# Entry
Amino acid sequence: MKRNTLILALVALAALLLSSCDDFLDITPTGKVIAKTGEEYRALLTNEYKYFSKDRYLTTVRTDEMLMDKKKTSSTDLDAYLDLWRWKDENPSPTTSYFMWRNYYHTIYIANYVIEHRDEITHATRDEVNQLVGESYMLRAYSHFLLVSLFADPYTHCQPAATRGVPMQLEADVNAMPASSSVETVYQQVLSDVAEAEKLLTVEKWEEGKNYRFNKISAQALRARTYLYMGEWEKALTAAKAVMEAHGELEDMNTSKTLPNSYKSVESIVALEKFSSNLFTVINLPNPDFINLYRTGDQRRTKFFKRVTSSTYDLSKGGDDEFSCSFRSAEAYLTAAECAARLGNTADAIDYLKPLLQKRLNADAFTTASDLMADMTQEELTQEILDERARELAFEGHRWYDLRRTTQPALTRTYDDETFTLTPEKYTMRFPTEAVESNPEIERWEGGSASLK
# Structure
């Protein structure tokens, strides 16, 4: 009898990822991890942070931010990424890179284990235990959030309560075979986990080098992003304002040499997801049409990109571990501005955006931008804020999710005289073939639900 690939993955990855860790970590025949002390549980979570998926950056390959050119891209990279770039999701090349379904569920499994064994953790203060459990809730929430954002229809383009989401794993049980829950149920579970995490997290801010870990403000940051993707403008605005109040620092690109997506930046809230050097070599073909979104006097045009020739650029925002970024303060300003604009509060939207623009544009460009925004209609201002999200968060893994939750534009690409089009259904990734073959019920969802925990 076939077993769900998800379950097999949990056991296999547990053995693979933990076998190289300290001696106190081991896997029992049922797939459970042996850990007792706070230090051991911290090591367990550190390992999950280390191997957390880089899928948010991988989505860049499917956006309008970059090109794929066989004259400039190695054959190995073409084998791995070409079909992703041209949205060839049916029968892609077997060498095509894929989104890390298994890794997410492994992280969720470990998070569940920590949550379930919270009362058994020894040699740790109550605050230390609460922090570990709070981080586990955040890891579970964020993993489910990324899964539903990749493999289910966008909340804003479906009937969430009647649309298939993804399987939710809410217990550390390797024998469980969870069916998919609705999109709405998954989002509500994410928000429930964030609320639980918020009660437990004790660390306001991790020191540099440990800021890959979730902290107290990260709960509001994930809440703001979740509500934004749901189109819940008032709730997203409230959470974004809380982030701005608690962590409103912005890198001044008129004077600073540190890019805002660096883990060393004053903007960093959580620096979990790494822009791997291997993926950077692929993404490092910025689309000149995308770069034209930047106006004269925008410091990001010259600091995010390096001109190579009159029509080609290199990307300066990645390439080594310094560029690790999951949440940063600029996103909160953009979320607040977008939500205010969509609610019709255009003056407030401009006020939320101006502090960011002051740190990104030279004096003349800032004056020009302020004058332009003052004369915009609500629709024009909303589009300008979306363009500003594209400029500010370029190549950080946001663009794909912004396209899919908003207008889902029909992008086109030509490769070897063949034209490919990104249509609305391709904004949702297919479940991995091996997962569907092992458990067809996860795809043939007919309205089942799961209770919150």
Q: What stands out?
A: The two ends are 30 Å apart (CA to CA).
